[in-house]
Sequence to fold (442 residues):
Amino acid sequence: MQLSETGRIGYVLKIYPRFSETFIVTEILAREAAGEELEIFSLRPPVDPRFHPELARVQAPVTYVGRPQKLSEGWPIIAAAHAIIPNFAQRFADLLPELAECDASEVHQGVELATRVVERGISHLHAHFGSIAARTARITSALTGIPFSFTAHAKDIYHEQVDNAELIRLMQDAHHTVTVSDFNHRYLSTLAPAASDRLHRVYNGLELDRFPFRRPAPVHTPFRVAAVGRLVEKKGFSLLIDAAAALVRSGMQVDVRIAGGGELADSLAERIRLLGLSEHIRLLGPQTQSEVIDLLQWADVFAAPCVIGADGNADGLPTVLLEAMAMGVVCIGSDVTGIPEVLGGPDGTDTGLLVRAGNVEDLIQALETAASDSFDRAATACAARSLIQRCFDSRIQSAQLRRLCAEAAAEALATGPDAIPSAPSSAIPPSTRSPKIEAVAR
Fold:
């Protein structure tokens, strides 16, 4: 599919780059490798000094959209939009009743983004998460006529603070909505039936060459357990600590290593200390992707004991679980949202061990099973890799996203040459744009 079929795609993100959002970088790299021309628009600057080396491969220029703090700072933004965007005054007036209910900074960022995308010749906007990025893209779309789409993941769907009415509006106004699991697709189809025909399940993809398969070796002594994720309730790491405690009490030697940082770091460390497990469980802190790969190569088993948090927050389909499966690490996961779609292949072949969310006895039994000599680790690992190759190759993902954007471009073209406004390029303040995020991880 050639660039002319999709036009230039603008990615709208709340924060770019973000250490925990490796799946977005993978998606961008796959689309660029397929020949698409992308630009990235970030609504906030990065706040974490840690970055993955893969960022250095992204070619898309990055613009940090200004965020006015005072009303007086917003007027120049509106004036610039009036000068650049055809029919801006009428579009803004028509949208004003709705904008009056929005956060003022989102309105100003939506207006500035509208100016930028017209200047750059962007023909489609795609946001990640059905929250601030999608809301801002929606404002920009209404002001310019440029279609937008977004990917809904997990916290933007299930958290108690999600405004379902706003999420439904986003889905109805978007050219299409993408979500990352069949579970999400079923939920969102029920939530917004009028938009269900424009809702598409597109799994997050992996660059498979970066996750080479290795047949699992015999288990080590002590038994090596790896887990990766933010230290938050929905990851279920407290259950993994309790399960490890039970195994130690039963006489089993275990070495558990948990990579990630987050709000529960101190409480999990205290739990480990109180249970006398400091020699058996280590909290590694945040790790780069290369360090995560090293951890997965070390492990006998990977555990993703996810739960639904008290606030309704739940994981969608953890990318690191897919990475572990790709590499031939035997995986244990709980039956939360999209995880059952991968731990148990579509043909019934076992691809890992599935446990009931929040059930520590299930988790203990699964760990014991994975450590036993009778468990066919090689067959499980091969089945998992086969599933990942069929369904989670980032090249497949990028082709699906490319097709959806091509449909949007074709529909815009069919409505006439004035459907998407254009304007001559103008000078862009250098403080708002960087040609590329360099290898800041070095």
Remarks:
- Residues 422-442 have pLDDT under 50 and may be disordered.
